[in-house]
Amino acid sequence: MKLIKTQEELLAYLDKIGYDKTDYRVAVEALIFNSEGKLLLEERGKKVQDEEGKLEGVGGSLRINDLLQALQEEFNQELAAKVVGLEIQVDRLLEVRQVQFEEKKAGSTSGIWREWVVVSHLCRIAKGTPAIGEPGKVAKLHYVTLDELFALPEERLSRSVIMGREVYKAKYGSRPYYDLPDPDVP
């Protein structure tokens, strides 16, 4: 599947697959690999609305029309890309998935379940080293091999990464995607 670059393209795709929900939010996600084929995951910090302490890809809610620009903004915010000279190449679309999250206000033990559409991208570091750009939202950065990712218990992962790792494994196995042809391109 080709990259979905705009909200209009996403809406056309959702219409094409028969997604008929109207009360949902959109998020962009990046599963980022380094040159050794390890995946960068963020450990969610204490100032997040959901899934504190879980490991997940880089991303956030879509606030602009351009999905790739939205990813770049997430790289700048969460990984301090502008500050540290980090360049990340967006290569492929992994999938578009529906996920539900329980959003909680700070200090609350319960929240509201929300429907999200996550546009998940496969990326790689082209230059530089990521740093934590939002210390309250990102507690720590982790690099894991794909085998380590597949072995992690679900309790350690965000809902989105749980779903994404299954799709990744089905498409690419335990090899970095950039070493293999894109299975979605004939």
CATH superfamily: Nucleoside Triphosphate Pyrophosphohydrolase
What average pLDDT do the residues reach?
92
- Are there runs of 5+ residues with pLDDT below 50, and where? none
Secondary-structure element series: HEEEEHHEEEHH
Through-space gap between termini: 10 Å
Helix fraction, binned, reads 25-40%
| Count of individual domains | 1
Main pleated-sheet profile: 7 strands, mixed
Structure commentary:
The protein is 25% helix and 33% strand. It is α+β, with helices and mostly antiparallel strands and 186 residues long. It has a single domain, classed as Nucleoside Triphosphate Pyrophosphohydrolase (Alpha-Beta Complex). Strands 1, 2, 3, 4, 5, 6 and 7 form a seven-stranded mixed sheet that branches. The model has no long low-confidence stretch (mean pLDDT 92).
SSE diagram, text form:
Layout: H1 7-16, E1 25-33, E2 39-44, E3 55-56, E4 58-61, H2 67-79, H3 81-84, E5 87-103, E6 112-127, E7 138-144, H4 146-151, H5 159-172
Parallel strand pairs: 1-6
Antiparallel strand pairs: 1-2, 1-4, 2-3, 2-7, 5-6
